[in-house]
Specification:
Layout: H1 3-9, H2 18-24, H3 29-41, E1 54-56, H4 59-66, H5 70-82, E2 86-90, E3 93-96, H6 106-133, E4 142-145, E5 148-151, H7 154-173, H8 182-204
Antiparallel strand pairs: 1-3, 2-3, 4-5
Helix pairs in contact: 3-5, 4-5, 5-8, 6-8, 7-8
């Protein structure tokens, strides 16, 4: 998907109430700006069954458009994922879950977001438990950062990668990526969060392929 071409040369559907929706979802200014960019470049053609309502691009491209760093794009997108506005389908491939039209039940999404934050807190506890159970693990391997966590060592990165692979296999076996079942959404949420930690580490340490 050439999103620069989409920004400059193609039709865009604009929702007038998007600012009201952003307010009700408590989107930060940076989250609103990235969400609005996704709305500007997503595939809106229903004839494209496999890519409809999705955006496929890299953090580098988004960062260049927004004047941000790639790591900031990653952090802000994680916030949008947690608030239920977008969903990661694969690396660099995102579905726009919430379009600000009259058909969206914003109140329902707010309730889901509250439940999601509870599950995220549970996931953080699981990560902390994982850390405490590792033999000879440096207590600073996972450190608190603005209410989230970050990876600091290669060993921790490898441990998280193994966990992500295990979760991905489990979700694949259950066909759970797009499931609405709470127990499967918890697995997907945890997989996406840990994958986000990995991506942050890869960006910070220049591990991404050029």
């Amino acid at each position: 998907m050439n999103i620069l071409r989409r920004l400059n040369n193609t039709y865009q559907k604009v929702y007038r109430n998007r600012h009201h929706v952003a307010k009700r979802l408590n989107l930060k200014d940076s989250e609103y700006r990235l969400w609005d960019l996704y709305l500007a470049v997503y595939d809106w053609d229903k004839k494209h069954e496999e890519t409809y309502q999705t955006v496929e691009t890299t953090d580098k491209v988004l960062a260049d458009i927004l004047g941000w760093s790639a790591s900031k794009v990653c952090r802000v997108r994680n916030g949008l994922i947690q608030k239920g506005t977008i969903k990661e389908k694969a690396r660099s491939f995102y579905e726009i879950v919430l379009l600000p039209n009259s058909k969206n039940d914003i109140a329902k999404l707010q309730d889901e977001n509250a439940n999601l934050h509870d599950r995220i807190a549970e996931t953080q506890e699981n990560i902390a438990e994982l850390q405490s159970n590792q033999d000879e693990t440096d207590e600073n391997t996972i450190v608190s950062y603005k209410g989230k966590y970050r990876i600091s060592t290669v060993d921790e990165y490898n441990d998280i990668k193994n966990k992500v692979d295990e979760l991905s296999k489990n979700i694949d076996e259950k066909n759970g990526w797009l499931s609405d079942k709470p127990e499967e959404r918890i697995l997907v949420d945890e997989q996406q969060r840990l994958a986000g930690l990995m991506l942050n580490y890869e960006i910070e340490n220049d591990l991404l392929p050029i």
